[in-house]
Specification:
By secondary structure, the protein is mainly alpha-helical. Helices cover 52% and strands 9% of the residues.
Length: 107
C-alpha cells in the first residue's frame, strides 16, 4: 500500500479545515524565528551587521543569542538588516493595532 501525498490529504479534507490550514501556513511562512534567522534572510553576515551597527562582530553574536532586548537595540538591529520595526498589539475585543511612542522605537 502506497502512502498518500500532501496534496491528496489536503484535497480529501473539508473545505473549511483546508482554508484554516492554508491561512495558518501563510502566517507561519511570514514569521522569522530569532535575529540570526532575520539576518540570514536579509543575506547579511555578522561582520556586515557589526560594521553597520558600529560594534564588533562578537557583540552581534551576543545580541543574536539574547532573549531579552531593549526595544532600541532591536530597532537598530532590524534597521541594520535593512528592515523597519513595528510593534503590533492584539487586545480581546479590540482587534489588532500598531503600538507607537514606546521608548526609542521611532527615534
Amino acid at each position: 500500500m502506497m502512502g498518500r501525498t500532501h496534496s491528496e490529504i489536503m484535497a480529501a479534507m473539508p473545505e473549511e479545515r483546508r482554508r484554516r490550514i492554508e491561512a495558518r501556513t501563510a502566517e507561519l511562512v511570514g514569521e522569522v524565528e530569532g535575529l540570526k534567522a532575520l539576518r540570514q534572510l536579509a543575506e547579511r553576515s555578522q561582520v556586515e551587521m557589526a560594521t553597520t551597527l558600529k560594534i564588533k562582530q562578537p557583540s552581534v553574536h551576543k545580541i543574536e543569542r539574547q532573549t531579552d532586548l531593549y526595544l532600541s537595540t532591536l530597532r537598530r538591529y532590524v534597521e541594520a538588516a535593512g528592515g523597519t520595526l513595528e510593534l503590533r498589539v492584539e487586545l480581546p475585543g479590540k482587534g489588532v493595532m500598531h503600538l507607537t511612542g514606546v521608548g526609542d522605537l521611532h527615534g
